[in-house]
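Hi Y.,

Following your request, here is the sequence exactly as I used it, all 74 residues.
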Amino acid sequence: MIKLEKLNGSLVVVNAELIESVEGSPDTVINLATGNRYLVRNPVDEVIALVVEYKKKVYSERKCINPLEGYEKK
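Below is the corresponding structure, written out as tokens. Let me know if you'd prefer a different format.
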């Protein structure tokens, strides 16, 4: 989830996994896979940086799971 600022100044938290596209014209428009759209004050580059930071954090915390762990030949 990333925190963004709507045009009216209120905070909106968006699921970064659902973002399909980000448009900058002059306001930033975020299009989600659900069909929802958000107009935000954050510039496109900032939104991209927030998504990249979020994904780095989420995917770096993942642990690789060995499905054979505990079943190795002895």
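The first strand starts at residue 2 and ends at 5.

Thanks again,
Q.
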